[in-house]
């Protein structure tokens, strides 16, 4: 065992280090998802998605539930530990939504998105 002190930012980044991890976590704040739903609107292979989901599950951020349906399906949701990332996801969104120079969204859209993220992520001021 090393006596080296590890930065907590590094430790957090190691938990969510795969390319699609943050997007998967964000999507799960908006509700439980099935495997194929994660792929909607994303250019992600089954192999990469499966690896990412497994990694997040092993790190205790998400949980997988195999449903007794025909055909069998799998549902993913955030654990309480995963839900504690709400402030991180919120601040990532606010980083660009609060940028005065950003013109990707109209001011009206930005305000609605801020409201939606705040409500969905259960952010209290």
UniProtKB/TrEMBL annotation:
PROSITE patterns: HTH_HXLR. GO terms for molecular function: DNA binding. Residues 7-104 form the HTH hxlR-type domain. The keyword Chaperone does not apply. It holds the Pfam family HxlR. Keywords: DNA-binding, Transcription, Transcription regulation. The keyword DNA-binding applies. This is Helix-turn-helix transcriptional regulator.
